[in-house]
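User: Before I run my own analysis I want an independent prediction to cross-check against. Here's the chain; please return only the structure tokens and, at the end, one sentence I can use as a sanity check.
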Amino acid sequence: MPKHVIKAFVYKGEKYYVAECLEIPVVTQGKTLEEVLRNLQEAVSLHIEGKDLREYDLVEKPFILVTIELETLDVKT
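Assistant: Structure tokens:
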């Protein structure tokens, strides 16, 4: 059964946020979380445009599910 979701992982790189997809070979970056998410959506759309999504075991117009890695806060009690 084809997948309805493309999973992506977002983390803070040395200077920018980085987004990497798990199902397809897409990696992008942005200065802010908002920017990297916009770039991710655009990069995924461009990558799958005109492709046979069955090659990736995906349905037409899949959703993007994003997991974001956040640093823990240094909380003093």
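Sanity check: The chain has a mean pLDDT of 92.
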